[in-house]
Give the backbone structure.
Amino acid sequence: MKKSIRKVSSIILSVSMLTLGLVGCQTKNSETVGKNEEKTLTISMFGFNEDLYRKNVIEPFEKKHNVKVVFELGSNADRISKLKMGASKADVAVFSAYHSMQGIEEGAFEKINPKNIPNIENLYDIAKAPLGEDYGPAYAVASFGIMYDKDKVQNPITSWGDLWRPDLKDKILLPDITTTGGPYLLMIAAEQAGVDIKKDEDKVFEKLKELSKNTLKFSDKSSDSINMIARGEVEALGAFSFESQATKDAAPNSKWVDPKEGSYAIINTINIVKGTKNKKLAEEYINWLLSEDIQKVQAIDKIDSPVNKNVKLTEEQAEGLVYGKETIEKLNVADWKYINDSLEKWIERWNKEVISIKK
């Protein structure tokens, strides 16, 4: 009987030792899998040039950091709405300055620690903290200027003020107030009226009413710029630097102008989304995007104008880009907090006082 008990005990002990051994192996294997498991980083971004962006930026980042990058693509307006509603899965988000300011005021972004993103120090001043020290840097800069048909416009356009000339009546295309370029029109009108927009918005809107007489259309579609000047429907337009080459390709007689008062800076910023579980990886991605090598390859492929001041381009490589210290320092920079706080009432006045004239 005792022998039987001892035998059973030995069997139980052996089974227990085997079970513990298997559990130990499983735990060790789980830890190994956890360490080698591919992480996912989700980026909310624009949809254009996705293939080149993935080749130049994403694929080498994925390889270096053993990470899978997923995109949430869409327009500024659609993506910021998704973020506000809590419907976005993004860890990192890129927006125009205006839409980034909306995100900041909604509390949608984590505060930035520049020590964890050392490439911020290599940026032009305009790009380091465009919306405040606590928030994301600019990763690209563009400009809002003028393009015109040099064959049809007899007197060259050199100034924002030229858009009010009588010979351009019904010959101009300008952005609607709700688009990225729209708020700049108020800044331009204020300058032409000789007033501070923060003190005298009435005179600004009076100046805009005058401008509307020369404007064939206020457009909310970026494609209108290229199509309408190519078809000869308009002779001048408010234009973005990143569209200038495509416009010239479609309308070879078109010419880009940086007005003597200065073009306006269009700044795209990158922020870390509030509550992300991948904050460290998000910081690494931002630092990667701001690096000299990535900024240069994006510039050469005409995706983004570089904000890293260490990027050196040949004259051919720089063509069509906002490039170099002198060019960037000449750009006019808007007060995006003021614009964000004012835009709702501006849109109401715009529809009543400016657009109504066109109907």
In short: The chain has two domains: 39-141+266-329, 142-265+336-358.
